[in-house]
Design a protein that fits this description.
Elements: H1 19-49, H2 51-54, H3 57-85, E1 89-90, H4 91-124, H5 129-132, H6 135-150, H7 154-163, E2 171-172, H8 177-180, H9 184-219, H10 225-243, H11 249-257, H12 261-277, H13 282-288, H14 292-307, H15 312-330, H16 334-341
Antiparallel strand pairs: 1-2
Length: 342
C-alpha cells in the first residue's frame, strides 16, 4: 500500500542469526502458520458443508476474510522462510509474492468496511436487508474489493517496466516491497493510496457505529441486537488497528536497527510474530467462534468427526488452547476484547 508505511505483510525479515536460532525461529513461524491455517481451514470446510452459510451474505463476507487471511499468512511465512534460504531472489518471482501479499493486505480493511455496512443495514433497515444484501451483490462487492486492491500495486509493475524493461530479470538481495518497488513515483503513490484507503475505512466504521448507536437509542432496542452490532463494529475497529501494525512495519524496523545487534534480532522476530502472524488469528475468534449459528454448526461438525474416530480433532482442541494463550500474552488489551465477545 505504501513504502514508508509498508502494507505488505510479505516483508520478509532480512536478519539472519545463528544457524540454531534461525532454524528454531522458522519452526515457530511455520508451526503458528499451520495452526492458524488449520483452524481457518476448518471454518472454511464448515462453511462449505451447510447451505445456511453460503446463501447468507454475512457469512460469505466472513469466509472471504478467512480465505484472504489464509493466503496472506501463507505468502508472508513463505517469504520469511525464503529470506533465510535464498540470499538472492529473481525479481519476477519476488514480484509474484509481493503482489499476492499486497492484494490480501489491501483486502482486509475494505472487507471490514463492507461487513460493517452489512451490519448497519441489518440494524437500521431490517425490513430491506434481504432486498439490499443479496448473494449476487455480495460477490460483486468482493470483486470490487479485489479490483480496488489491484490499483495500489499493479501500476507499480508498469512503472518499473516502463523505466527499466529488464527489471524482471534482476536478482535482489531480499524480497521486500521497499527494495522491489523503489521508484519515486511508486513511493509517492503508495503513501497517497494508504492515507486515502484507511481514512475512508475509518470514517465508514465511525459513521456506522454512530448510526447504530443513535438508532438503538431512538427506538429503545432492548433485545440486545443493537448492543451486539455496536460491539461488532468496535471489534472491526480493533481488528483494523491490529492489521495496521503491518503499515508501520518499516518505521518499527528502522527503530529496532538502533538497538544492539543481539537484541535487535530478537526484537525483529517478536515484532514479526506480533504484527504479521497473530492478526490473522483474530478473524476466526471474532466471527467464527463468536457467532452462535456458526459456532453451533462448527461444534456439531467437530463432534460428528470425533464420534467417527478422527483423532485430529484432539489436536485442534489443544491448538485452540495454545493460540488463545498466545493471543492473551501478545495483546495487552485482550481482556477488553474478550469482554466484547461475550
Amino acid at each position: 500500500m505504501n513504502s514508508s508505511v509498508n502494507v505488505s505483510v510479505s516483508s520478509s525479515l532480512t536478519y539472519r542469526g545463528a544457524t540454531e536460532t534461525t532454524v528454531t525461529r522458522n519452526v515457530i513461524v511455520i508451526a503458528l502458520g499451520l495452526v492458524i491455517n488449520y483452524i481457518n481451514g476448518t471454518l472454511l470446510h464448515t462453511f462449505r458443508k451447510h447451505q445456511i452459510f453460503y446463501t447468507n451474505p454475512r457469512y460469505i463476507l466472513f469466509i472471504h476474510l478467512v480465505v484472504n487471511d489464509m493466503i496472506q499468512l501463507t505468502t508472508s511465512i513463505s517469504l520469511h522462510v525464503f529470506s533465510y534460504i535464498f540470499y538472492n531472489m529473481n525479481a519476477s518471482i519476488c514480484c509474484f509474492f509481493i503482489v499476492v501479499a499486497n492484494f490480501t493486505t489491501q483486502n482486509t480493511p475494505l472487507n471490514l468496511a463492507v461487513m460493517a455496512a452489512e451490519c448497519y443495514i441489518a440494524v437500521c433497515f431490517p425490513l430491506r436487508h434481504a432486498e439490499l444484501c443479496t448473494v449476487k451483490r455480495t460477490y460483486i462487492l468482493i470483486s470490487c474489493i479485489w479490483v480496488l486492491s489491484s490499483m495500489s500495486i499493479v501500476p507499480d509493475i508498469f512503472i518499473h517496466l516502463a523505466a527499466d524493461p529488464l527489471w524482471f530479470f534482476y536478482y535482489i538481495a531480499y524480497c521486500d516491497k521497499d527494495i522491489l518497488f523503489r521508484h519515486p513515483v511508486s513511493l509517492q503513490k503508495r503513501v497517497i493510496t494508504y492515507i486515502m484507503s484507511l481514512t475512508i475505512v475509518w470514517f465508514t466504521l465511525l459513521f456506522i457505529y454512530l448510526k447504530i448507536f443513535f438508532t438503538a437509542q431512538a427506538v429503545n432496542l432492548v433485545d440486545g441486537n443493537a448492543k451486539k452490532a455496536r460491539n461488532t463494529i468496535l471489534l472491526h475497529g480493533f481488528q483494523l488497528l491490529f492489521c495496521m501494525l503491518t503499515y508501520v512495519d518499516p518505521i518499527v524496523k528502522n527503530m529496532i536497527i538502533t538497538w544492539p545487534n543481539y537484541l535487535a534480532s530478537e526484537l525483529r522476530f517478536v515484532w514479526y510474530i506480533f504484527a504479521h502472524i497473530l492478526p490473522r488469528f483474530i478473524s476466526p475468534i471474532v466471527y467464527g467462534l463468536r457467532d452462535k449459528t456458526f459456532k453451533q454448526y462448527l461444534k456439531n461438525y467437530l463432534l460428528c468427526n470425533i464420534r467417527a474416530g478422527n483423532k485430529f480433532w484432539w489436536l485442534v482442541d489443544h491448538m485452540l488452547v495454545i493460540c488463545g494463550m498466545l493471543v492473551k500474552l501478545a495483546v495487552p488489551a485482550s481482556n477488553h476484547l474478550f469482554t466484547l465477545l461475550d
